[in-house]
Amino acid sequence: MTARNLEALQALAGESVNCVIAWPASAIGRDGVINLRRKFGELRRVLAKTGSVWLRLADTGQRDELAGMPWRAALALQADGWIVRNAVVLQRSISLEREERRLGSAHELLFLLVKERTYYFDLDALGETSGTGVRELRAKRPGDVWSVERDGNRGGCLRLTLRCIAATCPPGGTVLDPFCSKGTTAVAARQLGRNFVGVTPDVMRSAA
């Protein structure tokens, strides 16, 4: 996170965002957790009381052991006052990295964080669809293990982004991407009829 990036968030009006898609481009280390908490301080200010944040994180390894960074980050944010509502397991293809003395990594974590216990959440948007195209939610409540396609671009999973926005951003609401780079969140927001604000290290852009 650069100073200019933080300044862009500070320029946004308070409680002007309904949903945040926060997917850092790479795994974070201990310094990354500190920077993440700084950024989330501003996200808390701009997020509506009924708003939500989706935070996607992968773990890092240090000295042949996992660092546990996703949960370290989530617990640090919880200590800052965020409510951790879900830790969704994103099941994906096994990593191509070669390691003969441990299992291949095949998942990441997607945390759902909120400011208040009363927040916007459209459970119907997460329903399964049958072969006829009819959404079947009541018969099967969505779980917290989701399959995602590995497309070589961590930030570019459009179907996953659509799902998150549809569930936690009301129609006509505003979606913020504080790690905007690939434009996937902007595409998803536009497809769903939501407004979009994206923050990159160099510029803030928006689209209705």
From TrEMBL:
This is Methyltransferase. It is an enzyme of class 2 (transferase). Its EC number is 2.1.1.-. GO terms for molecular function: DNA binding; N-methyltransferase activity. It comes from the Bacteria. The keyword Membrane does not apply. Keywords: Methyltransferase, Transferase. Belongs to the N(4)/N(6)-methyltransferase family. Residues 39-199 form the DNA methylase N-4/N-6 domain.
